[in-house]
Protein backbone atom coordinates (compact mmCIF):
# COMPACT_ATOMS: atom_id res chain seq x y z
CA UNK A 1 0.00 0.00 0.00
CA UNK A 2 3.03 2.34 0.13
CA UNK A 3 2.36 5.39 -2.02
CA UNK A 4 -1.02 4.04 -2.99
CA UNK A 5 -4.32 5.44 -1.90
CA UNK A 6 -6.58 2.84 -0.31
CA UNK A 7 -8.76 0.98 -2.80
CA UNK A 8 -12.35 0.81 -1.56
CA UNK A 9 -15.08 -1.35 -3.10
CA UNK A 10 -18.64 -0.15 -2.48
CA UNK A 11 -21.93 -1.94 -3.04
CA UNK A 12 -25.39 -1.91 -1.47
CA UNK A 13 -28.82 -3.51 -1.72
CA UNK A 14 -31.00 -0.46 -2.35
CA UNK A 15 -29.46 -0.16 -5.81
CA UNK A 16 -27.25 2.25 -7.66
CA UNK A 17 -29.86 5.05 -7.71
CA UNK A 18 -30.45 5.22 -3.95
CA UNK A 19 -29.59 8.29 -1.92
CA UNK A 20 -27.76 6.18 0.66
CA UNK A 21 -25.01 5.07 -1.70
CA UNK A 22 -24.62 8.58 -3.13
CA UNK A 23 -24.21 9.99 0.33
CA UNK A 24 -21.70 7.30 1.24
CA UNK A 25 -19.65 8.19 -1.83
CA UNK A 26 -19.73 11.85 -0.87
CA UNK A 27 -18.44 10.99 2.61
CA UNK A 28 -15.66 8.59 1.63
CA UNK A 29 -14.51 9.77 -1.78
CA UNK A 30 -11.67 11.87 -0.35
CA UNK A 31 -10.38 8.81 1.54
CA UNK A 32 -9.29 6.61 -1.34
CA UNK A 33 -9.77 5.25 -4.83
CA UNK A 34 -13.40 4.13 -4.91
CA UNK A 35 -14.94 1.48 -7.18
CA UNK A 36 -18.70 0.91 -7.04
CA UNK A 37 -20.41 -2.26 -8.29
CA UNK A 38 -24.02 -1.96 -7.19
CA UNK A 39 -27.31 -3.58 -8.18
CA UNK A 40 -29.16 -1.87 -11.02
CA UNK A 41 -32.47 -2.26 -9.14
CA UNK A 42 -33.36 -2.40 -5.43
CA UNK A 43 -32.50 -5.74 -3.85
CA UNK A 44 -33.57 -5.35 -0.23
CA UNK A 45 -33.83 -8.48 1.88
CA UNK A 46 -31.61 -10.54 -0.40
CA UNK A 47 -29.23 -11.66 2.36
CA UNK A 48 -26.16 -13.47 0.94
CA UNK A 49 -28.13 -14.81 -2.02
CA UNK A 50 -26.47 -15.67 -5.33
CA UNK A 51 -27.79 -15.75 -8.88
CA UNK A 52 -27.29 -19.38 -9.84
CA UNK A 53 -29.74 -20.04 -12.66
CA UNK A 54 -29.01 -17.30 -15.19
CA UNK A 55 -26.07 -15.13 -16.24
CA UNK A 56 -25.69 -11.68 -14.74
CA UNK A 57 -24.24 -8.63 -16.44
CA UNK A 58 -22.52 -5.37 -15.56
CA UNK A 59 -21.99 -2.05 -17.34
CA UNK A 60 -19.79 0.96 -16.70
CA UNK A 61 -21.92 3.91 -15.58
CA UNK A 62 -19.26 6.56 -15.05
CA UNK A 63 -15.52 6.93 -14.64
CA UNK A 64 -14.11 9.96 -12.92
CA UNK A 65 -10.92 10.80 -11.04
CA UNK A 66 -10.79 8.41 -8.10
CA UNK A 67 -14.31 7.09 -8.64
CA UNK A 68 -15.54 4.40 -11.03
CA UNK A 69 -19.16 3.25 -10.97
CA UNK A 70 -20.60 0.05 -12.42
CA UNK A 71 -24.14 -1.26 -12.24
CA UNK A 72 -24.86 -4.97 -12.13
CA UNK A 73 -27.96 -7.12 -12.64
CA UNK A 74 -27.07 -9.48 -9.79
CA UNK A 75 -27.57 -9.59 -6.05
CA UNK A 76 -25.39 -7.60 -3.64
CA UNK A 77 -23.23 -10.69 -3.05
CA UNK A 78 -22.94 -11.26 -6.80
CA UNK A 79 -21.78 -7.64 -7.13
CA UNK A 80 -18.88 -8.18 -4.73
CA UNK A 81 -17.87 -11.50 -6.27
CA UNK A 82 -18.06 -10.07 -9.79
CA UNK A 83 -16.12 -6.92 -8.92
CA UNK A 84 -13.29 -9.02 -7.48
CA UNK A 85 -13.22 -11.13 -10.63
CA UNK A 86 -13.49 -8.37 -13.21
CA UNK A 87 -13.04 -4.67 -12.49
CA UNK A 88 -10.77 -4.49 -9.43
CA UNK A 89 -7.13 -4.22 -10.43
CA UNK A 90 -5.95 -5.47 -7.05
CA UNK A 91 -7.39 -6.80 -3.82
CA UNK A 92 -9.18 -3.85 -2.23
CA UNK A 93 -8.22 -2.50 1.19
CA UNK A 94 -11.83 -2.18 2.26
CA UNK A 95 -15.31 -3.30 1.22
CA UNK A 96 -18.27 -1.13 2.25
CA UNK A 97 -21.98 -1.93 2.00
CA UNK A 98 -24.49 0.90 2.25
CA UNK A 99 -25.51 3.27 3.41
CA UNK A 100 -28.67 1.21 3.69
CA UNK A 101 -32.10 2.80 3.99
CA UNK A 102 -33.31 0.86 7.06
CA UNK A 103 -32.09 -0.83 10.23
CA UNK A 104 -29.87 -3.91 9.83
CA UNK A 105 -29.15 -4.40 13.52
CA UNK A 106 -30.32 -7.33 15.63
CA UNK A 107 -31.67 -10.40 13.78
CA UNK A 108 -32.08 -8.28 10.64
CA UNK A 109 -28.43 -8.93 9.90
CA UNK A 110 -29.50 -12.29 8.46
CA UNK A 111 -31.89 -10.87 5.86
CA UNK A 112 -29.82 -7.87 4.89
CA UNK A 113 -28.39 -7.53 1.40
CA UNK A 114 -26.16 -4.77 2.75
CA UNK A 115 -24.65 -7.27 5.15
CA UNK A 116 -24.52 -9.74 2.22
CA UNK A 117 -22.01 -7.31 0.68
CA UNK A 118 -20.08 -7.15 3.93
CA UNK A 119 -20.06 -10.89 4.69
CA UNK A 120 -18.79 -11.52 1.15
CA UNK A 121 -16.02 -8.94 1.47
CA UNK A 122 -15.06 -10.57 4.76
CA UNK A 123 -15.09 -14.07 3.22
CA UNK A 124 -12.72 -12.72 0.58
CA UNK A 125 -10.31 -11.72 3.34
CA UNK A 126 -10.84 -7.96 3.14
CA UNK A 127 -11.86 -5.70 6.08
CA UNK A 128 -15.53 -4.93 5.49
CA UNK A 129 -18.10 -2.57 6.97
CA UNK A 130 -21.86 -2.25 6.54
CA UNK A 131 -23.52 1.09 7.23
CA UNK A 132 -27.28 1.37 7.71
CA UNK A 133 -29.45 4.33 8.66
CA UNK A 134 -32.59 3.50 10.63
CA UNK A 135 -34.96 5.13 8.16
CA UNK A 136 -36.61 3.67 5.09
CA UNK A 137 -37.33 7.13 3.66
CA UNK A 138 -35.96 7.46 0.11
CA UNK A 139 -34.96 11.01 0.97
CA UNK A 140 -33.67 10.31 4.50
CA UNK A 141 -31.15 12.73 6.03
CA UNK A 142 -27.73 11.04 6.01
CA UNK A 143 -25.83 14.19 6.95
CA UNK A 144 -25.43 13.47 10.68
CA UNK A 145 -23.92 10.07 9.77
CA UNK A 146 -21.05 11.60 7.82
CA UNK A 147 -18.64 12.24 10.68
CA UNK A 148 -19.12 8.74 12.07
CA UNK A 149 -18.84 7.01 8.70
CA UNK A 150 -15.55 8.79 8.04
CA UNK A 151 -14.21 8.07 11.51
CA UNK A 152 -15.05 4.35 11.36
CA UNK A 153 -13.61 4.00 7.85
CA UNK A 154 -10.42 5.76 8.98
CA UNK A 155 -10.01 3.41 11.97
CA UNK A 156 -10.54 0.28 9.89
CA UNK A 157 -8.12 1.45 7.19
CA UNK A 158 -5.52 2.13 9.92
CA UNK A 159 -5.99 -0.96 12.02
CA UNK A 160 -7.64 -3.58 9.80
CA UNK A 161 -9.95 -6.24 11.19
CA UNK A 162 -9.16 -9.80 12.34
CA UNK A 163 -9.85 -12.66 9.92
CA UNK A 164 -13.50 -13.72 9.57
CA UNK A 165 -14.79 -10.57 11.27
CA UNK A 166 -16.48 -7.49 9.88
CA UNK A 167 -18.52 -4.56 11.22
CA UNK A 168 -22.27 -4.03 11.14
CA UNK A 169 -22.79 -0.31 11.82
CA UNK A 170 -26.31 1.01 12.38
CA UNK A 171 -27.12 4.67 12.81
CA UNK A 172 -30.27 6.16 14.36
CA UNK A 173 -32.16 8.60 12.12
CA UNK A 174 -31.73 11.57 14.47
CA UNK A 175 -30.10 14.97 14.09
CA UNK A 176 -27.85 14.69 17.16
CA UNK A 177 -25.95 11.45 17.49
CA UNK A 178 -24.61 10.86 21.00
CA UNK A 179 -21.51 8.91 19.96
CA UNK A 180 -20.48 5.34 19.25
CA UNK A 181 -21.23 2.16 21.20
CA UNK A 182 -19.68 -1.28 20.63
CA UNK A 183 -22.58 -3.75 20.83
CA UNK A 184 -23.72 -7.30 20.50
CA UNK A 185 -26.58 -8.48 18.30
CA UNK A 186 -29.95 -8.02 19.99
CA UNK A 187 -32.12 -11.10 20.38
CA UNK A 188 -35.48 -10.28 18.83
CA UNK A 189 -38.34 -11.78 16.90
CA UNK A 190 -40.52 -10.66 14.03
CA UNK A 191 -44.24 -11.17 14.62
CA UNK A 192 -47.43 -10.74 12.58
CA UNK A 193 -45.29 -10.98 9.52
CA UNK A 194 -47.86 -11.34 6.76
CA UNK A 195 -50.70 -9.27 5.45
CA UNK A 196 -53.38 -11.43 3.89
CA UNK A 197 -53.62 -9.97 0.46
CA UNK A 198 -56.20 -12.06 -1.41
CA UNK A 199 -57.52 -15.54 -2.07
CA UNK A 200 -58.11 -16.80 -5.61
CA UNK A 201 -59.61 -20.26 -5.71
CA UNK A 202 -57.26 -22.39 -3.61
CA UNK A 203 -54.36 -19.97 -3.73
CA UNK A 204 -53.64 -17.66 -0.81
CA UNK A 205 -51.71 -14.41 -1.34
CA UNK A 206 -49.67 -12.72 1.38
CA UNK A 207 -47.50 -9.63 1.57
CA UNK A 208 -44.50 -9.47 3.94
CA UNK A 209 -44.83 -6.93 6.74
CA UNK A 210 -44.29 -7.55 10.47
CA UNK A 211 -43.70 -6.13 13.91
CA UNK A 212 -40.26 -6.16 15.46
CA UNK A 213 -40.24 -7.46 19.04
CA UNK A 214 -37.10 -6.83 21.07
CA UNK A 215 -36.68 -9.74 23.51
CA UNK A 216 -34.14 -7.89 25.68
CA UNK A 217 -35.09 -4.20 25.49
CA UNK A 218 -33.26 -3.22 28.68
CA UNK A 219 -29.88 -4.74 27.87
CA UNK A 220 -27.46 -1.85 27.35
CA UNK A 221 -24.94 -4.06 25.53
CA UNK A 222 -27.29 -4.71 22.61
CA UNK A 223 -27.26 -2.87 19.32
CA UNK A 224 -30.95 -2.09 19.46
CA UNK A 225 -30.55 -0.41 22.86
CA UNK A 226 -27.82 1.81 21.41
CA UNK A 227 -30.07 2.81 18.51
CA UNK A 228 -33.04 3.48 20.76
CA UNK A 229 -30.84 5.76 22.83
CA UNK A 230 -29.31 7.83 20.05
CA UNK A 231 -25.94 6.09 19.65
CA UNK A 232 -24.26 4.72 16.54
CA UNK A 233 -24.23 0.94 17.11
CA UNK A 234 -21.12 -0.94 15.96
CA UNK A 235 -21.70 -4.69 16.14
CA UNK A 236 -18.58 -6.72 15.36
CA UNK A 237 -19.78 -9.62 13.26
CA UNK A 238 -18.30 -13.00 12.40
CA UNK A 239 -18.73 -15.17 9.34
CA UNK A 240 -17.76 -18.24 11.39
CA UNK A 241 -21.21 -19.30 12.57
CA UNK A 242 -20.04 -22.41 14.44
CA UNK A 243 -21.79 -22.68 17.82
CA UNK A 244 -18.60 -23.71 19.61
CA UNK A 245 -20.26 -23.89 23.02
CA UNK A 246 -22.46 -26.76 21.85
CA UNK A 247 -19.75 -29.01 20.43
CA UNK A 248 -18.87 -30.95 23.59
CA UNK A 249 -22.51 -31.60 24.46
CA UNK A 250 -23.26 -32.88 20.96
CA UNK A 251 -20.35 -35.32 21.15
CA UNK A 252 -22.14 -37.08 24.01
CA UNK A 253 -25.21 -37.65 21.82
CA UNK A 254 -23.70 -40.10 19.31
CA UNK B 1 -46.44 -32.42 23.87
CA UNK B 2 -48.05 -35.09 26.08
CA UNK B 3 -50.09 -37.50 23.96
CA UNK B 4 -49.19 -35.53 20.87
CA UNK B 5 -46.90 -36.68 18.12
CA UNK B 6 -44.13 -34.22 17.35
CA UNK B 7 -45.09 -31.58 14.80
CA UNK B 8 -42.34 -31.21 12.17
CA UNK B 9 -42.19 -28.41 9.60
CA UNK B 10 -40.18 -29.22 6.47
CA UNK B 11 -38.95 -26.94 3.71
CA UNK B 12 -36.00 -26.85 1.32
CA UNK B 13 -34.44 -24.79 -1.46
CA UNK B 14 -34.43 -27.30 -4.31
CA UNK B 15 -38.20 -27.06 -4.46
CA UNK B 16 -41.15 -29.28 -3.81
CA UNK B 17 -40.38 -31.62 -6.73
CA UNK B 18 -36.84 -32.53 -5.71
CA UNK B 19 -35.86 -36.05 -4.78
CA UNK B 20 -34.13 -34.83 -1.62
CA UNK B 21 -37.30 -33.59 0.05
CA UNK B 22 -39.21 -36.74 -0.95
CA UNK B 23 -36.53 -38.92 0.55
CA UNK B 24 -36.49 -36.83 3.72
CA UNK B 25 -40.26 -37.30 4.05
CA UNK B 26 -39.87 -41.05 3.59
CA UNK B 27 -37.27 -41.13 6.38
CA UNK B 28 -39.06 -38.98 8.93
CA UNK B 29 -42.75 -39.54 8.25
CA UNK B 30 -43.04 -42.26 10.92
CA UNK B 31 -41.56 -39.87 13.49
CA UNK B 32 -44.30 -37.27 13.73
CA UNK B 33 -46.97 -35.14 12.13
CA UNK B 34 -45.26 -33.55 9.13
CA UNK B 35 -46.20 -30.30 7.41
CA UNK B 36 -44.31 -29.27 4.27
CA UNK B 37 -44.22 -25.71 2.92
CA UNK B 38 -41.66 -25.74 0.14
CA UNK B 39 -40.83 -23.52 -2.84
CA UNK B 40 -42.71 -24.32 -6.03
CA UNK B 41 -39.52 -23.91 -8.06
CA UNK B 42 -35.81 -24.44 -7.27
CA UNK B 43 -34.36 -21.68 -5.11
CA UNK B 44 -30.74 -22.68 -4.63
CA UNK B 45 -28.35 -20.07 -3.29
CA UNK B 46 -31.08 -17.89 -1.84
CA UNK B 47 -29.57 -17.72 1.66
CA UNK B 48 -31.98 -16.08 4.15
CA UNK B 49 -33.53 -13.88 1.46
CA UNK B 50 -37.07 -12.55 1.72
CA UNK B 51 -39.61 -11.53 -0.91
CA UNK B 52 -40.19 -7.87 -0.11
CA UNK B 53 -41.48 -6.31 -3.32
CA UNK B 54 -44.40 -8.53 -4.32
CA UNK B 55 -46.96 -10.78 -2.63
CA UNK B 56 -46.27 -14.50 -2.40
CA UNK B 57 -48.83 -17.29 -2.51
CA UNK B 58 -49.25 -20.85 -1.33
CA UNK B 59 -51.50 -23.76 -2.32
CA UNK B 60 -52.34 -27.10 -0.76
CA UNK B 61 -50.78 -29.91 -2.80
CA UNK B 62 -51.86 -32.94 -0.81
CA UNK B 63 -53.25 -33.87 2.58
CA UNK B 64 -52.76 -37.38 3.88
CA UNK B 65 -52.67 -39.04 7.32
CA UNK B 66 -49.80 -37.37 9.17
CA UNK B 67 -48.52 -35.49 6.12
CA UNK B 68 -49.71 -32.21 4.63
CA UNK B 69 -47.87 -30.63 1.70
CA UNK B 70 -48.08 -27.03 0.52
CA UNK B 71 -46.15 -25.32 -2.25
CA UNK B 72 -45.23 -21.66 -2.04
CA UNK B 73 -44.01 -19.05 -4.51
CA UNK B 74 -41.59 -17.51 -2.01
CA UNK B 75 -38.03 -18.13 -0.87
CA UNK B 76 -37.15 -20.87 1.63
CA UNK B 77 -37.19 -18.30 4.44
CA UNK B 78 -40.56 -16.98 3.24
CA UNK B 79 -41.86 -20.57 3.36
CA UNK B 80 -40.98 -20.94 7.04
CA UNK B 81 -42.36 -17.54 7.99
CA UNK B 82 -45.56 -18.14 6.04
CA UNK B 83 -46.09 -21.65 7.44
CA UNK B 84 -45.83 -20.30 10.99
CA UNK B 85 -48.35 -17.59 10.19
CA UNK B 86 -50.88 -19.67 8.27
CA UNK B 87 -50.93 -23.47 8.18
CA UNK B 88 -49.29 -24.60 11.44
CA UNK B 89 -51.84 -25.13 14.16
CA UNK B 90 -49.24 -24.82 16.88
CA UNK B 91 -45.56 -24.02 17.26
CA UNK B 92 -43.74 -26.98 15.71
CA UNK B 93 -41.34 -29.15 17.69
CA UNK B 94 -38.81 -29.20 14.90
CA UNK B 95 -38.00 -27.42 11.64
CA UNK B 96 -36.04 -29.35 8.99
CA UNK B 97 -34.47 -28.03 5.80
CA UNK B 98 -33.50 -30.48 3.07
CA UNK B 99 -32.33 -32.90 2.14
CA UNK B 100 -30.37 -30.55 -0.08
CA UNK B 101 -28.77 -31.67 -3.31
CA UNK B 102 -25.26 -30.29 -2.67
CA UNK B 103 -22.79 -29.52 0.10
CA UNK B 104 -23.74 -26.75 2.57
CA UNK B 105 -20.74 -27.16 4.86
CA UNK B 106 -17.98 -24.61 5.35
CA UNK B 107 -18.57 -21.07 4.04
CA UNK B 108 -21.44 -22.39 1.89
CA UNK B 109 -23.66 -22.09 4.94
CA UNK B 110 -23.98 -18.38 4.11
CA UNK B 111 -25.39 -18.88 0.61
CA UNK B 112 -27.58 -21.86 1.38
CA UNK B 113 -31.36 -21.62 1.10
CA UNK B 114 -31.55 -24.88 3.04
CA UNK B 115 -29.78 -23.18 5.91
CA UNK B 116 -32.08 -20.19 5.32
CA UNK B 117 -34.91 -22.53 6.37
CA UNK B 118 -32.95 -23.65 9.40
CA UNK B 119 -31.79 -20.21 10.54
CA UNK B 120 -35.40 -18.99 10.31
CA UNK B 121 -36.71 -21.93 12.34
CA UNK B 122 -34.03 -21.19 14.91
CA UNK B 123 -34.90 -17.47 14.99
CA UNK B 124 -38.49 -18.53 15.67
CA UNK B 125 -37.28 -20.41 18.75
CA UNK B 126 -37.71 -23.93 17.37
CA UNK B 127 -34.96 -26.61 17.23
CA UNK B 128 -33.91 -26.74 13.59
CA UNK B 129 -31.76 -29.00 11.43
CA UNK B 130 -30.47 -28.71 7.88
CA UNK B 131 -29.56 -31.87 5.97
CA UNK B 132 -27.46 -31.74 2.81
CA UNK B 133 -26.05 -34.51 0.67
CA UNK B 134 -22.77 -33.71 -1.11
CA UNK B 135 -24.09 -34.45 -4.58
CA UNK B 136 -25.87 -32.15 -7.02
CA UNK B 137 -27.26 -35.10 -9.00
CA UNK B 138 -31.06 -34.83 -9.35
CA UNK B 139 -31.22 -38.60 -8.87
CA UNK B 140 -28.60 -38.84 -6.09
CA UNK B 141 -28.72 -41.85 -3.76
CA UNK B 142 -30.05 -40.68 -0.40
CA UNK B 143 -30.52 -44.17 1.00
CA UNK B 144 -27.30 -44.33 3.08
CA UNK B 145 -28.35 -41.06 4.77
CA UNK B 146 -31.57 -42.50 6.14
CA UNK B 147 -30.21 -44.05 9.33
CA UNK B 148 -28.31 -40.91 10.24
CA UNK B 149 -31.18 -38.55 9.44
CA UNK B 150 -33.49 -40.56 11.68
CA UNK B 151 -30.93 -40.78 14.48
CA UNK B 152 -30.19 -37.05 14.47
CA UNK B 153 -33.90 -36.14 14.33
CA UNK B 154 -34.57 -38.51 17.24
CA UNK B 155 -31.83 -36.94 19.38
CA UNK B 156 -32.99 -33.39 18.71
CA UNK B 157 -36.63 -34.27 19.46
CA UNK B 158 -35.49 -35.86 22.74
CA UNK B 159 -33.02 -33.25 23.89
CA UNK B 160 -33.87 -30.03 22.07
CA UNK B 161 -31.24 -27.44 21.18
CA UNK B 162 -30.13 -24.35 23.13
CA UNK B 163 -31.56 -20.96 22.12
CA UNK B 164 -30.07 -19.37 18.99
CA UNK B 165 -28.41 -22.61 17.89
CA UNK B 166 -29.27 -25.08 15.15
CA UNK B 167 -27.55 -27.93 13.30
CA UNK B 168 -25.99 -27.93 9.84
CA UNK B 169 -25.66 -31.59 8.86
CA UNK B 170 -23.75 -32.53 5.71
CA UNK B 171 -23.48 -36.06 4.38
CA UNK B 172 -20.89 -37.41 1.95
CA UNK B 173 -22.33 -39.04 -1.18
CA UNK B 174 -20.86 -42.46 -0.48
CA UNK B 175 -22.38 -45.90 0.06
CA UNK B 176 -20.67 -46.58 3.39
CA UNK B 177 -20.80 -43.76 5.92
CA UNK B 178 -18.24 -44.14 8.71
CA UNK B 179 -20.29 -42.44 11.42
CA UNK B 180 -20.91 -38.96 12.79
CA UNK B 181 -18.43 -36.21 13.65
CA UNK B 182 -19.16 -32.98 15.50
CA UNK B 183 -17.36 -30.25 13.58
CA UNK B 184 -16.64 -26.59 13.21
CA UNK B 185 -17.14 -24.58 10.01
CA UNK B 186 -14.19 -24.95 7.64
CA UNK B 187 -12.46 -21.76 6.56
CA UNK B 188 -12.41 -21.77 2.78
CA UNK B 189 -12.60 -19.52 -0.23
CA UNK B 190 -14.31 -19.70 -3.60
CA UNK B 191 -12.02 -18.82 -6.52
CA UNK B 192 -12.43 -18.37 -10.30
CA UNK B 193 -16.07 -17.78 -9.63
CA UNK B 194 -17.30 -16.50 -12.96
CA UNK B 195 -17.46 -17.86 -16.46
CA UNK B 196 -17.32 -15.07 -19.03
CA UNK B 197 -20.43 -15.73 -20.99
CA UNK B 198 -20.64 -12.96 -23.60
CA UNK B 199 -20.16 -9.26 -24.28
CA UNK B 200 -22.83 -7.20 -26.02
CA UNK B 201 -21.76 -3.62 -26.65
CA UNK B 202 -20.71 -2.32 -23.23
CA UNK B 203 -22.46 -5.03 -21.25
CA UNK B 204 -20.51 -8.00 -19.88
CA UNK B 205 -22.29 -11.28 -19.11
CA UNK B 206 -21.04 -13.77 -16.54
CA UNK B 207 -22.27 -17.10 -15.20
CA UNK B 208 -21.55 -18.15 -11.60
CA UNK B 209 -19.29 -21.16 -11.26
CA UNK B 210 -16.15 -21.44 -9.08
CA UNK B 211 -13.59 -23.64 -7.42
CA UNK B 212 -13.77 -24.38 -3.72
CA UNK B 213 -10.43 -23.89 -1.94
CA UNK B 214 -10.16 -25.36 1.55
CA UNK B 215 -7.81 -23.13 3.58
CA UNK B 216 -7.30 -25.72 6.33
CA UNK B 217 -7.53 -29.12 4.61
CA UNK B 218 -5.67 -31.01 7.35
CA UNK B 219 -7.71 -29.83 10.32
CA UNK B 220 -9.66 -32.83 11.61
CA UNK B 221 -12.09 -30.64 13.53
CA UNK B 222 -13.52 -29.07 10.38
CA UNK B 223 -16.68 -30.14 8.62
CA UNK B 224 -15.00 -30.44 5.27
CA UNK B 225 -12.40 -32.83 6.70
CA UNK B 226 -15.21 -35.04 8.01
CA UNK B 227 -16.89 -35.08 4.59
CA UNK B 228 -13.63 -35.81 2.77
CA UNK B 229 -13.11 -38.76 5.09
CA UNK B 230 -16.52 -40.37 4.81
CA UNK B 231 -18.19 -39.05 7.99
CA UNK B 232 -21.51 -37.29 8.46
CA UNK B 233 -20.52 -33.74 9.55
CA UNK B 234 -22.68 -32.10 12.20
CA UNK B 235 -21.76 -28.44 12.58
CA UNK B 236 -23.60 -26.72 15.44
CA UNK B 237 -24.52 -23.30 14.11
CA UNK B 238 -25.48 -20.05 15.78
CA UNK B 239 -27.72 -17.23 14.60
CA UNK B 240 -25.92 -14.83 16.97
CA UNK B 241 -23.18 -13.60 14.66
CA UNK B 242 -21.65 -11.15 17.14
CA UNK B 243 -17.85 -11.39 17.07
CA UNK B 244 -17.58 -11.20 20.86
CA UNK B 245 -13.79 -11.54 20.87
CA UNK B 246 -13.44 -8.22 19.06
CA UNK B 247 -15.61 -6.11 21.34
CA UNK B 248 -12.98 -5.01 23.86
CA UNK B 249 -10.47 -4.10 21.17
CA UNK B 250 -13.05 -2.01 19.31
CA UNK B 251 -13.87 -0.08 22.48
CA UNK B 252 -10.31 1.25 22.47
CA UNK B 253 -10.77 2.68 18.97
CA UNK B 254 -13.31 5.38 19.79
- Largest binding interface between chains: A-B, 81 and 81 residues
Largest sheet of chain A: 9 strands, mixed
What's the average pLDDT of chain A? 96
Q: Strand percentage of chain A, roughly?
A: 25-35%
Q: Please, what is the CATH homologous superfamily of chain A?
A: Survival protein SurE-like phosphatase/nucleotidase
Helix content of chain A: 10-25%
The CATH topology annotation of chain A reads as: Stationary-phase Survival Protein Sure Homolog, Chain: A
Strand order of the largest sheet of chain A: 3-4-2-1-5-6-7-13-8
Radius of gyration of chain A: 19 Å
Structure annotation, total helices of chain A: 6
Q: Show unreliable segments of chain A.
A: none
The arrangement of helices and strands of chain A along the chain is EHEEEHEHEHEEEEEEHEH
